[in-house]
Amino acid sequence: MTSRLTAALVGHHLTAADHPSSVHRRKWAPGYRVQQDSPRTVRVWHDGPDEHPHLAAYADALRAAGCTVTAEHPVGARPRLRVTHP
After folding, report:
1. Beta partners for 68?
2. Are 28 and 70 in contact (CB under 8 A)?
3. Would you say 55 and 81 are in contact if contact means Cβ atoms under 8 Å apart?
4. CA atoms of 70 and 63, how far apart (whole Å)
5. How many CB atoms lie within 10 A of CB 20?
6. What domains appear along the chain, each with residue ranges and CATH number?
7. What is the pLDDT of residue 28?
8. Where does 1-86 show beta strands of DSSP type E?
9. For the segment 31-64, what is each residue's pLDDT rounded down to a tens digit?
10. What H or E segment, with its residue span, contains residue 10?
11. Nearest CA among 53, 58, 49 for reference residue 83
12. What is the C-alpha to C-alpha distance for residues 11 and 13, in angstroms, rounded to an integer?
């Protein structure tokens, strides 16, 4: 069973790995965006160009932090990552 995981913790892991947020700035710039989907699931998107390479880099950083990461490509929606804690 997976344990609780917060969007804030996922954002902290990404920021610690030198990935910028697209939300926490005075002016918009490309970067990651996180959303809490459930107590155990966080979704991550890349706002800006070159989504796939950035999502791959985010996935590597989150896996190194001990998270379980699954790439999602929903039909008619942007690619994203599903992040849980083992």
Report:
1. 84
2. no
3. yes
4. 10
5. 14
6. 7-84 (3.90.1070)
7. 83
8. 31-38, 41-47, 68-72, 80-84
9. 999 999 999 999 999 999 999 999 999 999 999 9
10. helix 7-16
11. 58
12. 5
